[in-house]
Amino acid sequence: MAEPLLELRGVHTHIGAYHILHGVDLVVPAGQVTMLLGRNGAGKTTTLRTIMGLWAASSGELRFRGERIGGPGTPADTPRIAQRGIAYVPENMGIFGDLTVQENMVLAARSARRAAQLDTARLDWIFGLFPALKKFWLYPAGKLSGGQKQMLAVARAIVEPRELLLVDEPSKGLAPAIVQNLIEAFRQLKAQRTTVLLVEQNVAMARALGDRVAVMDNGRVVHDGSMAALAADDDLQQRLLGLSLGAHA
């Protein structure tokens, strides 16, 4: 396995009176796409939000490039975590509907205060991935379709190079053609050695993109290994996920 970029060791997370993560151990290798799979309520979104510092780990530790970024004694400081080169695309997309597509992109860029300061070569690459964003550049983001909003959410996360992307169910509710656009975007990011931790229910996307896979159940990682090995083992899929990936390809 490649050198780990992100590691979670025995991470527990409480949200109010609820104990959601129960000792999560997770390794995300550098330069690969790691799929985070599991049934609804398994703790996948809580894991991403804990990594990003939106919820504080009550015990355990989180390390990025070997440096501690979370756990008791380490403040859950989302801006500080983002400054390390970690971007998060939440399931609700997190775009600003009253702002234009352009304004959303500028807000996401740390090195630009206006559109003219955006990296034009990178912007052209993003437009190549998501042509609709160029077409609707000056439109309010709230008027975009659901698929276009998801494209914008991903584009915001990659408007500048990031070392690690945390992405929560990007294909949810999208048409197959738009899902293919997203798959191609993540393939190109992986080719650029961007590391991705991807929560996804679309098994075709998981099979197409995943190098590694971690399966969660009841707030714990109950399986980790290669995505190819899981995809080839119907019995393991049924036991861990309650479905056959081949039947949903």
From TrEMBL:
Q: Which positions fall inside the ABC transporter domain?
A: 6-243
KW Nucleotide-binding (keyword) present:
yes
Q: Name one GO molecular function term.
A: ATP hydrolysis activity
Q: Does the keyword Nucleotide-binding apply?
A: yes
Q: Any one Gene Ontology biological process term?
A: L-amino acid transport
Concerning InterPro entries, the annotation shows:
AAA+_ATPase, ABC_transporter-like_ATP-bd, ABC_transporter-like_CS, BCAA_Transport_ATP-bd_LivF, P-loop_NTPase
Q: Which PROSITE patterns match?
A: ABC_TRANSPORTER_1, ABC_TRANSPORTER_2
Keyword annotations of the record:
Amino-acid transport, ATP-binding, Cell membrane, Membrane, Nucleotide-binding, Transport
What PANTHER family does the record point to? Answer: ABC TRANSPORTER ATP-BINDING PROTEIN, HIGH-AFFINITY BRANCHED-CHAIN AMINO ACID TRANSPORT ATP-BINDING PROTEIN LIVF
- Family assignment from sequence similarity: Belongs to the ABC transporter superfamily.
Protein's recorded name: Branched-chain amino acid transport ATP-binding protein LivF
User: What is the species of this protein?
Assistant: Piscinibacter sakaiensis (Ideonella sakaiensis)
